[in-house]
Amino acid sequence: MDFAQGETQSGYGPDLVIYIPFAGEMRVKSICVIGGPDGKSPSKMKLYKNESTVDINIQEDKKAVQTIDLNENLDGSLEYPVNVSKFNNVSNLVIGFDENFGASKT
Question: Considering the entire predicted model, what is its pTM?
Answer without folding.
Answer: 0.88
